[in-house]
Structure of Glycerol-3-phosphate dehydrogenase [NAD(P)+]:
Amino acid sequence: MSISVIGAGAFGTALAISLARTGMAVSLWARDPNHAANMQNTRENTARLPGVALPDSITVTANISEALADTMLLAVPMQKMRDLLKSTPELNSRLLVACCKGVELETELGPVAVIRDCDPKATPAILTGPSFAADIARGLPTALTLAIADDSLGQSLQQALTTPNLRIYRTTDTIGAELGGALKNVIAIACGAAMGAGLGESARAALMTRGYAEVQRMAQALGARPDTLAGLSGFGDLTLTCTSDQSRNYRFGLSLGRDEPFDPQITVEGAATARAVKARAKHMNIDMPITAAVVGMIDHNLKITQAMEMLLSRPPKEE
Ligand SMILES: NC(=O)C1=CN([C@@H]2O[C@H](COP(=O)(O)OP(=O)(O)OC[C@H]3O[C@@H](n4cnc5c(N)ncnc54)[C@H](O)[C@@H]3O)[C@@H](O)[C@H]2O)C=CC1
Ligand SMILES: O=C(CO)COP(=O)(O)O
């Protein structure tokens, strides 16, 4: 099986490094020719993963025809995925593995559904779960979920992606995997805001737990399996992202809670996803008060203290 990586940001670079460690020759495609040339020459992604050397078996290129493989890992932000697929017809009809976490704003679809929508002949999959790019790149122990409908193809891909430090679990539940990974980012923003405003660890635990209840309500209504949501791609990634300031979503939340500016160039998937999920929840009549509060903070200048007051004053419920 030949595998290439599309998108030379933090995660794409980390995945290419991980694959190279299996002994595979890997192409890493960057759309910006200067970025590609710089990485190819310096053997480093100085912008996103400074200090981590690219193994010799990685070729970085901006020429898509040099990066084509049976299997393509798509490591671009969720809101750019459709643009990538539409502008790169060379990717058509392949095994396309989404390596992003989010829900598309315009369509309210997750990454697997967007691949299906753009390219009905592609075989879509998703690689997701708790992992920081820097940890994978440094070879620290990590476990991810690979979701793909065809389980025998899943077994081959699982083997190809596994390294001594990267353990891959497999599922056929693409809906659960893509929604768990997308929705946890929204909850991480809420947790960061609570911590940034000094509301305390107990408030964060409440937001994580009730946030997980929201994830389950939405994802199960869309056909996700509960065991997937309880696994790496759901509960696992929620835990990591809501508790680590390595997470950009959490840090974005911290800045909201502290009333500080945040660099708009940094990829924060949970912001657009919160808007998309709030809209979808409304269409489906699903109660998602924490997601609504995050949209309030991002779009309507709601303060986390006000959001918390609203959450606390809701009518009493059974758990
Ligand atoms: N950084 C991390 O620790 C992890 C990130 N992810 C996910 O990976 C996805 C990408 O995130 P990062 O790599 O961290 O972001 P990043 O901001 O470091 O890199 C994104 C890359 O996508 C490229 N890109 C943007 N639009 C494009 C287009 N239309 N065509 C081709 N390339 C395009 C950009 O040039 C950039 O190199 C996100 O969905 C994120 O949630 C998942 C796990 C870990
Ligand atoms: O998805 C991630 C961890 O699993 C990375 O989180 P951020 O996108 O918030 O940095």
